[in-house]
Amino acid sequence: MKIALAQFNATVGDLAGNTDQIIALMEQARADGADILLVPELAISGYPPEDLLLRPSFYAACNAQLDRILDVADGITVVVGHPQQLGEEHFNAVTVVRDGNYVARYQKMVLPNNEVFDECRYFTPGAHSCVFEQRCHDGSTVQVGVLICEDIWHLEPAAEAAEQGAQILLVPNASPYHLGKEAVREEIVRQRAEETGLPIVYCNWVGGQDELVFDGASFAMNKQGEVIAKSPSFTPDLAMLDFVDGDLQRAAIHTTPNREAGIYQALVLATRDYINKNRFPGVIIGLSGGIDSALTLAIAVDALGADRVRAVMMPSRYTAQISLDDSRDMVARLGVQYDEISIEPMYDAFTTALAPQFAGLAADTTEENLQSRIRGVILMALSNKTGRLVLTTGNKSEMTTGYATLYGDMAGGYAVLKDIAKTLVYQLSTYRNSLQAIIPERIITRPPSAELREDQVDQDSLPPYDILDAIMARYVEDNQSIADIIASGFAEADVLRVVKLLKVNEYKRRQAAVGARITPRGFGRDWRYPITNGYMA
Question: Among all residues, which ones are annotated catalytic?
Answer without folding.
Answer: 41, 108, 149
